[in-house]
Amino acid sequence: MQALIRRRNIPTNGLHVVENGHVVAVKQMIYQWSAAAQGPIELLSFAALRARNDGGTQRADFCVLGFVESGAGMLSADFAEYALDPGSVVALAPGMVHQWRDIDTVVGSVVVFLPTALVTTAAQAASTELGRRIVWQPSEADRPFIDMARAHLVLESGAAQSAVAEESTRLALTLLLTRLDPMTDDSATGQPLFRSFRVAVERDFRSHHDAAHYARTLGYSSRTLTRAVQRATGVTPKAFISERLILEAKRLLAHDGLTAAACAVRLGFLDASNFSTMFRTKTGQTPGAWQRQFAPRRSSEAQATSR
Fold first, then answer.
1. Architecture of domain 192-296
2. Residue range 290-295: mean pLDDT, rounded
3. Residue 215 CB: number of other CB atoms within 10 A?
4. What is 16-180's CATH number, 2.60.40, 3.90.550, 3.90.1280, 2.60.120?
5. 285 φ, ψ to 5°?
6. What proportion of the chain, given as a percentage, has pLDDT over 70?
């Protein structure tokens, strides 16, 4: 097997689980492609996913697409619950904390891939936005195109390994993601400036909390950026950045078990009190109170994993 990322003590089969030192219950999933995969893209059934899934909470460094053909189950993702029903599409972006539950009866397919597998910059940008819509039912108008694109991906990924087969699989995945892209059906959120802003925030939010940085980086005035973001989301660029910081803080507090001070450092705050004030203003709770809600869950999952 050829590894994309080499770490010590990584098992050599399936989706590889790495304990990163201070994660209590969340498993950091590091993607490595299997010998049968066409590059950094792998297709598997829900049956195979069940065999690799221990029921715990996971945080992956790769993208996941799921297609439910029959059966039912549940998915927890970033503090929300989603029902999996026949026809559901699942999209998980890198970094999302998630847990598959009660998927014993689910039949369907899962696509695991790295954003770099996609052949266009627009598709790579779309892969960072997958978490905007996590579980949904495609419209009747969209479904035939999605089904055809998925069938073509299955066909290409099953071909004998070669440079042509790998490139064709990348193209097929790019087509599928383009058909699934939740922003293409919304003229406001799909406009180029907002999409560029969203990608830049995802890249820089830990080190840059000010909207002016993104306006400069993208080559627009602050006023133009504000208009674009408000038209797409109804909030200012500053509020959008704050929401992304809060989501990451919740992940670190609830699942990684970091202290408020450690979160502040991880998220680029020079003063931990400023981080705590922002968190309380946005959530109505102190970081410690938020974290205590999830302490029993982390403990029970850690015990289940150690059995």
1. Orthogonal Bundle (1.10)
2. 80
3. 19
4. 2.60.120
5. -135, 155
6. 80
